[in-house]
């Protein structure tokens, strides 16, 4: 266990630094967190400026990183002055990216099924039917840049109707490489005479929106599937800034979708939930109370330790713990890695071969998928760990 006295002493200072960086223009929170309170070797990335591009040394591998400072609002308005951005779909990403584009002053319209849930959500957010809110077909007909932010399953289902409208001179934009990469399964075969680009924010659409409103920008991946005009990459960078990105990392459609599907099933969501459940259940089976099991499994991790890792790195986290905690954590890291690596290899293979794609398309195309999904969520809500967590969260200082 971490030394709670030391963690409490650090927490308010470190979390404040993470939440409010001294310098806005940073590559990642790891580059901005203060290290003054713990003696660890500094790891400052080498920066080489060239034509507004930062070349960063990531652990010995140099990568070009693009930043929003090169695309101020006035430049965006000039660059897209003749474009209509037709954003199709108003889910999480559609909500965040659409509102950010609107606030940046670009000519953006929303295309969704009329009178559906997304249509009503868009109206609640101030989109006006007939002015900047239309049915999908009408929005595509008006757009020069078609931003397909429908769900992966919906992209596959609607593609036969959408493809004929993607005429020469338009640009097709994705925020996930899923549909074109797995085209044998999705049937999303893009026209050969248009630019096809990707901007994939590394977070939910709600986070994209929140960071933008706070004057910050989310990290995003950019990629080009097809460059007909010779300006596809430049367009992707500009759009990434316009939707709320701060820093942009170049990748490919394939690598984006492989890493995304792999990550969300692994450490980002599926794997971490599985570890939470396993640790919590063992504590309960060994006689610990629900509050103690939750605090030692989730609360201390998410409220004290994970912010320190995000802000400063794992070595800093180890240095901020008691010597007993540090020794045990380092020793058991090897066993967990050796045990879990075969599972992660199996997961990556499942992603790359399309097995995960088939599962997603089949499940999410089921007419009753929302009902089944809600039943799964209800089951998770009713797990003891999360019912105990609700009570623990109510006792946090900010809630009292």
From TrEMBL:
Gene: ILV5
Keyword match 4Fe-4S: no
Annotated ranges, domain KARI C-terminal knotted: 252-399
Cell compartment(s), UniProt: Mitochondrion
Catalytic activity, as annotated: (2R,3R)-2,3-dihydroxy-3-methylpentanoate + NADP(+) = (S)-2-ethyl-2-hydroxy-3-oxobutanoate + NADPH + H(+); (2R)-2,3-dihydroxy-3-methylbutanoate + NADP(+) = (2S)-2-acetolactate + NADPH + H(+)
Pathway listed: Amino-acid biosynthesis; L-isoleucine biosynthesis; L-isoleucine from 2-oxobutanoate: step 2/4; Amino-acid biosynthesis; L-valine biosynthesis; L-valine from pyruvate: step 2/4
Residues that span the membrane, as ranges: none
Binding site for substrate: 322
Lineage: Eukaryota, Fungi, Dikarya, Ascomycota, Pezizomycotina
Cofactor binding note of this UniProt entry: Binds 2 magnesium ions per subunit.
Protein name, as recorded: Ketol-acid reductoisomerase, mitochondrial
Annotated Mg(2+) 1 binding sites: 260, 264
Any single Pfam family the record assigns to this protein: KARI_C
NCBIfam families xref list: ilvC
Chain positions recorded as Mg(2+) 2 binding sites: 260, 296, 300
Cofactor(s) needed by this chain: Mg(2+)
Enzyme Commission number: 1.1.1.86
């Amino acid at each position: 266990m971490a030394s709670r006295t030391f963690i409490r002493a650090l927490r308010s200072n470190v979390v404040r630094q993470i939440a409010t960086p001294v310098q806005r223009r940073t590559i990642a929170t790891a580059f901005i967190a203060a290290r003054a309170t713990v003696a660890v070797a500094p790891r400052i990335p080498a920066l080489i400026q060239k034509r507004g591009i930062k070349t960063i040394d990531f652990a010995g591998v140099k990568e070009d990183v693009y930043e929003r400072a090169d695309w101020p609002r006035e430049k965006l308005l000039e660059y897209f002055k003749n474009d209509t951005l037709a954003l199709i779909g108003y889910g999480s990403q559609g909500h965040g990216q659409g509102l950010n584009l609107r606030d940046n002053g670009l000519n953006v319209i929303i295309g969704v099924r009329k009178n559906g849930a997304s249509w009503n959500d868009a109206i609640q957010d101030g989109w006006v039917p007939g002015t900047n809110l239309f049915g999908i077909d009408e929005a595509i007909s008006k757009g020069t840049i078609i931003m397909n932010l429908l769900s992966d399953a919906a992209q596959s289902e609607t593609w036969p109707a959408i493809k004929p409208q993607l005429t020469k001179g338009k640009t097709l934009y994705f925020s996930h490489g899923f549909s074109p990469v797995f085209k044998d399964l999705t049937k999303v075969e893009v026209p050969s005479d248009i630019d096809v680009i990707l901007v994939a924010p590394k977070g939910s659409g709600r986070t994209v929106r929140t960071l933008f409103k706070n004057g910050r920008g989310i990290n995003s991946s950019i990629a080009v599937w097809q460059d007909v005009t010779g300006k596809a990459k430049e367009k992707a960078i500009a759009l990434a800034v316009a939707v709320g990105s701060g820093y942009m990392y170049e990748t490919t459609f394939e690598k984006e979708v492989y890493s995304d599907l792999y990550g969300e099933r692994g450490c980002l969501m599926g794997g971490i939930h599985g570890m939470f459940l396993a640790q919590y259940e063992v504590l309960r089976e060994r006689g610990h109370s629900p509050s103690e099991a939750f605090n030692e499994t989730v609360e201390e991790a998410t409220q004290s330790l994970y912010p320190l890792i995000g802000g400063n790195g794992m070595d800093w986290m180890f240095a901020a713990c008691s010597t007993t905690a540090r020794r045990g954590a380092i020793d058991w890291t090897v066993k967990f890695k050796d045990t879990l690596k075969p599972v992660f290899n199996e997961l990556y293979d499942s992603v790359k071969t399309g097995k995960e794609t088939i599962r997603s398309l089949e499940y999410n195309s089921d007419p009753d998928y929302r009902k089944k999904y809600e039943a799964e969520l209800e089951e998770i809500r009713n797990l003891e760990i999360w019912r105990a967590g609700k009570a623990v969260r109510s006792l946090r200082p900010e809630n009292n």
